[in-house]
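Sequence, please.
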C-alpha cells in the first residue's frame, strides 16, 4: 500500500521558488505521495506517482531526481511522459473507453500542478502558473 500524507514534501520551499504552485499539487518523494491539498487521488494518479518513485530510485534518490526535474525541462518532460503513459493506461482500465468518465479526468488533469503543463510550452508561452495557452 502506498503511503499518502496530507502535508507538504520535504522540498516544498524549493518547489515554491521554482514553480507557481496552485495548492492542488501532489508530489512523489521516496515512496510517499504528498497531497497537501487533501484532494482525492484516483488509482491512475497513484500509479503515475509510483512511476516517479521508481525514477527517483534509478537516479540516486528523490533529492537528485527533484534537482534535475526542476532545472531541466526536456528531462522533466521525459519523466512525465513515462508516468502519464502509465496513468492513462490505468485510467483506461478503470473507466473503459476514453470518453467514459472523461469529465472526471479532464477536471483531474486541470487541477494538476504547473510542471505537467510547463513541460510542453516554450518560454514565450510560460507564466508563473504554467503555460498561458
Amino acid at each position: 500500500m502506498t503511503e499518502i500524507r496530507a502535508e507538504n514534501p520535504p522540498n516544498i520551499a524549493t518547489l515554491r521558488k521554482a514553480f507557481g504552485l496552485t495548492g492542488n499539487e501532489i508530489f512523489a518523494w521516496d515512496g510517499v505521495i504528498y497531497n497537501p491539498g487533501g484532494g482525492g487521488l484516483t488509482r491512475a494518479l497513484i500509479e503515475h506517482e509510483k512511476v516517479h518513485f521508481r525514477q527517483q530510485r534509478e537516479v540516486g534518490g528523490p533529492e537528485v531526481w527533484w534537482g534535475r526535474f526542476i532545472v531541466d525541462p526536456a528531462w522533466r518532460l521525459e519523466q512525465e511522459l513515462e508516468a502519464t503513459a502509465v496513468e492513462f493506461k490505468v485510467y483506461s482500465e478503470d473507466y473503459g473507453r476514453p470518453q467514459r468518465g472523461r469529465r472526471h479526468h479532464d477536471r483531474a488533469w486541470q487541477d494538476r500542478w504547473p510542471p505537467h503543463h510547463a513541460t510542453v510550452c516554450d518560454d514565450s508561452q510560460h507564466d508563473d502558473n504554467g503555460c498561458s495557452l
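The chain has one domain: 3-131.
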